[in-house]
Design goal:
Layout: H1 2-27, H2 35-46, H3 49-58, H4 69-79
């Protein structure tokens, strides 16, 4: 039983961290040109279609665009928190 909670805790923590990051970036999306793409990547990582659609339809993220080094670095950091 303790193994199960230990394994699910990082996933929950990572999900909360990704959701928080999404909100922070969304609140100031125009601060950096790469932010719409970052919102898209976060939505994909969270498997959240609502966030993916919002990133594309509201903020103009382009799914076919290459991932920027900045956004790759940020997403790499988020995956190491799990």
């Amino acid at each position: 039983m303790p193994n199960e909670s230990t394994q699910t805790m990082p996933n929950n923590s990572n999900s909360i961290a990704l959701n928080n990051l999404y909100q922070v970036i969304k609140d100031d999306v125009n601060r950096h040109d790469d932010n719409p793409q970052l919102l898209l990547l976060i939505g994909i990582q969270m498997n959240d279609l609502v966030k993916v659609r919002e990133a594309v339809e509201t903020f103009g993220a382009q799914p076919h665009q290459l991932v920027t080094d900045r956004n790759k670095h940020i997403m790499d950091q988020m995956s190491t928190t799990a």
